[in-house]
Design brief:
Elements (H helix, E strand, L loop, with lengths): L1 H5 L22 H5 L8 H10 L2 E9 L2 E2 L1 H9 L11 E8 L3 H22 L2 E9 L12 H13 L1
Parallel strand pairs: 1-3, 3-4
Antiparallel strand pairs: 1-2
């Protein structure tokens, strides 16, 4: 985010665990109305996504998958199917398992996010995948700043 802001872009971090985002109940009302009947913090998030030029979705990996918070967030994005087509999309994936096993696990989540971007018609511009157990560990990863700046350049094009 700091790299984007240094280039004059407005960026906002939305931490899903800090939001009241109820589970998708599968009613498909959004398919007919392009709106979700569940009234919670997603209403504000929908508005922010609609006004954004790009969306970056980040998630830790749990058992070779995004977190349940990220999965529910994606399910709750269904009302935006269509209106967000063409927006730039990137992902950040963090896993605590090192080596080839960890890279494979994070790769599955990256592939899933690419698939979701494709489903929504988003322009997937790239991702950053790292191994870190503690949030403070990520900043210690060699060349992480450069990797983030490179992704930022793709997002801001």
């Amino acid at each position: 985010m700091a790299a984007a802001e240094r280039r004059g872009a407005k960026a906002e971090l939305i931490v899903l665990r800090d939001k009241d985002i109820r589970i998708c109940d599968g009613c498909l009302t959004c398919e007919k109305t392009s709106a979700c009947h569940v009234k919670d913090d997603m209403q504000e998030i929908y508005s922010k996504i609609l006004s954004a030029d790009a969306v970056v979705l980040g998630s830790p990996t749990y058992f070779d998958a995004p977190t349940s918070l990220a999965m529910n967030f994606i399910a709750r994005m269904y009302p935006l199917y269509g209106p967000i087509k063409g927006k730039r999309f990137a992902s950040v994936v963090v896993g605590q398992v090192p080596g080839d096993e960890g890279a494979a696990s994070r790769g599955k989540v990256e592939d899933y996010f690419k698939s979701i971007a494709n489903t929504f018609g988003l322009d997937h511009v790239g991702s950053v995948s790292v191994t870190a157990r503690d949030p403070n560990d990520a900043s210690k990863i060699p060349h992480i700043e450069k990797r983030c700046q490179d992704l930022t350049t793709k997002i801001l094009k």
